[in-house]
C-alpha cells in the first residue's frame, strides 16, 4: 500500500513538474503571444506544448489545417490566441488565451459577469457564452462554443444576403449593445469581425426568406470598459483611442474612429459602440429612406448620434411596418 501511495505521489509530482516545464516554454505575456505569426512554426510549437494539458482537461486540439479558420470568406478570423478543439462530449469549441500573469483580468471579470450563469441565457444577451475556464500556472484559457462565421462580409462583399438579412443582423448587433450597456459595459471594439454568426442566411440564393434566422454573438471584450452602477452618467466617459485592457498600451490604435476619439475630447463610449456598428455598414445603402437615415445617424456626430436602445427602437419600428418579402432584394454597395 505504501509503495502504491508513493507511486501515485511520484506520478502527481511528475505531472506538476511537466506542467511547470511547459509553462516556461510558453509566451511570457499576451503581447508576445499575439504577435506570433498566424501560421508560424513558433506559434504551432506553443500550441503543441499545450496539447496534452488541454487533452487532460477534456479538449483535443484540431489539426492546424482543419482549425476552423481558412481563407474562405466568412470564417472565424485567425487569432494566435485562439485554437479550435473538440470537447470530450463531441462538440466543437474555441479555446482562447484570456489571462497571462497580470494581463487580462478585467477581460475575464467582464466575461464571468455577462457570459456565464443564468444571465448568459437571457434571450437579449448576445454575448458568446463562456463554457468554462482552464488554468495553467498564471494562464487562464476561456472555452467558448465554436461559431462558424463572422458578420464581416455579410453586407454583400461575398455573401448573397438580402437587405432583410443584413437588417436582421444589425438589429441583433444593436440588441447585443443594449444588453451590455444596461450592464454598464461598453465594448469599444464593436466592429463586424467581433460579431460571430451561426451561418450566412443568403436569402437571395433561393429568393425566399427562411423561417429560421441565424443568431449573432458578440465576442472579444479586450477593449471593453465597465463602469460602477453608482457612477452618474456624466462620469462614464473616456478620452483618446480605446486601449486593450489585456495588453501593454504601447501599440498605436489602427481601427477607424469618430472625431470625438481622434480629437482627444471626452466622449461617451456607449455612443462609440453605436458608431462602430454603424461604420461597419456605412458602405451600403438599402434604398429604403427611413432605414438609410438611421444608418447615417449611427455614424453622425456624437451630439446627433443616439443610444443603442433608441437606434434599435427606431429601426424596429420601421422594419416591423414592412413585410419580410419587401426586404428580399440586394443592398447597393457604395463607392468612394
UniProtKB/TrEMBL annotation:
Chain ranges passing through the membrane: none
Superkingdom, taxonomy of origin: Eukaryota
Residue intervals of the Protein kinase domain: 1-336
InterPro entries xref list: Kinase-like_dom_sf (IPR011009), Prot_kinase_dom (IPR000719)
GO terms, molecular function: ATP binding; protein kinase activity
Protein name: Protein kinase domain-containing protein
Organism, as annotated: Collybia nuda
Amino acid at each position: 500500500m505504501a509503495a502504491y501511495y508513493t507511486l501515485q505521489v511520484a506520478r502527481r509530482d511528475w505531472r506538476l513538474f511537466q506542467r511547470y516545464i511547459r509553462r516556461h516554454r510558453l509566451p511570457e505575456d499576451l503581447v508576445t503571444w499575439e504577435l506570433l505569426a498566424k501560421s508560424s512554426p513558433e506559434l504551432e510549437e506553443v500550441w503543441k506544448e499545450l496539447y496534452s494539458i488541454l487533452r487532460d482537461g477534456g479538449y483535443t486540439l484540431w489539426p492546424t489545417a482543419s482549425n476552423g479558420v481558412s481563407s474562405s470568406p466568412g470564417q472565424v478570423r485567425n487569432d494566435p490566441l485562439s485554437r479550435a478543439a473538440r470537447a470530450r462530449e463531441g462538440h466543437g469549441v474555441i479555446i482562447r488565451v484570456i489571462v497571462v500573469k497580470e494581463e487580462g483580468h478585467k477581460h475575464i471579470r467582464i466575461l464571468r459577469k455577462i457570459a456565464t450563469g443564468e444571465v448568459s441565457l437571457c434571450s437579449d444577451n448576445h454575448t458568446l457564452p463562456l463554457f468554462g475556464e482552464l488554468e495553467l500556472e498564471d494562464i487562464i484559457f476561456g472555452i467558448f462554443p465554436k461559431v462558424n462565421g463572422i458578420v464581416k462580409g455579410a453586407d454583400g462583399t461575398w455573401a448573397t444576403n438580402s437587405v432583410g438579412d443584413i437588417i436582421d443582423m444589425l438589429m441583433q448587433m444593436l440588441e447585443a449593445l443594449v444588453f451590455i450597456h444596461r450592464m454598464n459595459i461598453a465594448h469599444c471594439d464593436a466592429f463586424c469581425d467581433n460579431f460571430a454568426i451561426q451561418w450566412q442566411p443568403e436569402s437571395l440564393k433561393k429568393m425566399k426568406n427562411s423561417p429560421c434566422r441565424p443568431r449573432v454573438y458578440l465576442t472579444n471584450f479586450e477593449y471593453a470598459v465597465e463602469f460602477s452602477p453608482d457612477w452618474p452618467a456624466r462620469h462614464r466617459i473616456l478620452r483618446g483611442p480605446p486601449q486593450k485592457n489585456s495588453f501593454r498600451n504601447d501599440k498605436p490604435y489602427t481601427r477607424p474612429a469618430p472625431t470625438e476619439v481622434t480629437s482627444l475630447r471626452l466622449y461617451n463610449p456607449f455612443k462609440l459602440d453605436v458608431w462602430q456598428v454603424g461604420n461597419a455598414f456605412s458602405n451600403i445603402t438599402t434604398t429604403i429612406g427611413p432605414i438609410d437615415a438611421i444608418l447615417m445617424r449611427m455614424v453622425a456626430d456624437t451630439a446627433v448620434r443616439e443610444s443603442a436602445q433608441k437606434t434599435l427602437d427606431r429601426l424596429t419600428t420601421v422594419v416591423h411596418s414592412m413585410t419580410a418579402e419587401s426586404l428580399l432584394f440586394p443592398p447597393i454597395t457604395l463607392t468612394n
